Amino acid sequence: MPLNDLLSTLGDNPYFGAGFGLFGLGLGAAVLRKGASAGLVLFRRNFMMTLEVPCRDKSYQWVLLWVTQKAAKRTQHLSVETTFEQMDTGRVNTTYHFLPSIGVHLIEYNGKYIQVTRTREQQSLDLHAGVPWENVVLTAFGTNKSLFTNILEEARQMALKTLEGRTIVYTALGSEWRPFGHPQKPRPLTSVVLDDGISERILKDVQKFISKPYWYIERGIPYRRGYLLHGPPGCGKTSFIKALAGELQYGVCLLNLSERGLTDDRLNYLMTAAPQNTIILLEDIDAAFGGRHESKQVTSAYDGLSRVTLSGLLNALDGAASSEARILFMTTNYIERLDAALIRPGRVDSKEYIGHCSQSQIERMYNRFFLENKDNEKYAKEFAETVFKTGKPASAAQIQGYFMLLEDSSPSELIKNYNLIWDT
């Protein structure tokens, strides 16, 4: 049969015509679907922008707070975040914040609509926090990335405003610094009464260091400063450091060298990754390990407490990979136990002895504690002379404990019962 006759016969066949038509419709639908998908990808690539904020990024909590302010009032699908705020009286208030839940939300920002997609991976965990992995994706029309920069900056400012006037204490969790407890109201620096000139001298030195970073850079000097406060327990070393942080509007990073599992590598990383505008505090540095020349009896008392070595600590403080722009405070009750290499200049730039109360110190503590008493100067001087003449050393903690014990007593009773200072 000729080809023309065959085609004519097939064309007259209704089954063939229907099948060919269906094939054509399917092919056309597939082409349209593929074209629409490719067109959407092309449109998103050229006319839309996205920003992914993973939960491990420092800005994640800022963005969540920002999204809460912008979208939580307009959506009916919420999740709750409970926060605690410590008041000036010490009382803790509980506050419930409603966040947009897992899913897709639409918010308006400066005349632009932004799609907020919050997702949670049930199969993946953030190993440091022990919670499911989350992220937030912001999607907007346009190609101007300054929109996201403005959002992140606004979110940062919003987060800082909630912590304004508070001192944040950080502690090491894994390889990260996490806020510990509630943000605290700064303690006035004048409330920590040290011996004459010590507080003013340290504050002036720290402020001078903060104000002149380029002086260090121009001379090739590492931009970091180390301080060692040593003396008997209860004399105000740690209290002064926290008050100093409040005066500078800095946070405090508490680093326990005796923590089990702390290694040299992790110590070095934590020192480098400390949050900006914070003071790193190493308390009771003598308890971490004995000196290189200690006897076996002294050294064995500290064995097994930590995997940090003296060499690792020295390198973290002043090694090739040590961090810059750092303020470090160390405290000890026994400076004689410290290795000479640990407290040499460059690692410890300033040493201050915080000892038992002097007569002037006791007098100033009395004046500060009993503000409402008449003839305060007279009684303060008499009390200080009486205590100091005994020749018994008294720490600031003992004096304060005595004042709190007899806070409702008359000045004469305070002076008469001074022996209770060593019984409190």
Which descriptors would you attach to this protein?
7-stranded mixed sheet, 14 helices, alpha/beta, 4-stranded antiparallel sheet, 424 residues
Report on the architecture of this protein.
The structure is a single chain. This protein has helices at 3-12, 14-47, 60-71, 146-162, 198-211, 213-219, 237-248, 264-272, 296-300, 310-318, 359-369, 376-389, 396-405, 411-416; strands spanning 48-54, 78-86, 92-100, 103-109, 112-126, 131-141, 169-173, 176-179, 224-230, 251-254, 278-282, 326-332, 350-353. With 424 residues, it is α/β, with parallel strands linked by helices. The chain has a 7-stranded mixed sheet with strand order 8-7-10-11-12-9-13, with helices on one face. Helix 3 packs across helix 4, helix 11 (359-369) runs antiparallel to helix 12 and helix 11 (359-369) runs parallel beside helix 13 (396-405). The longest helix is centred in the N-terminal third of the chain and has 34 residues, at 14-47. It starts with a helix and ends in an 8-residue tail after the last helix.
Quaternary state reads single chain
Count the strands?
13
Number of helices: 14
Spatial gap, N to C terminus: 121 Å
Q: Please trace the helix and strand order, writing H or E for each element.
A: HHEHEEEEEHEEHHEHEHEHHEEHHHH
Unreliable runs: 291-305
Main sheet characteristics: 7 strands, mixed
Tell me, rounded to a whole number, the average pLDDT: 80
**Helix/sheet category:** alpha/beta
What is the 3D form? elongated
For the largest beta sheet, what order do the strands appear in spatially?
Answer: 8-7-10-11-12-9-13
What percentage of amino acids are in beta strands?
Answer: 15-25%
Percent helix: 40-55%
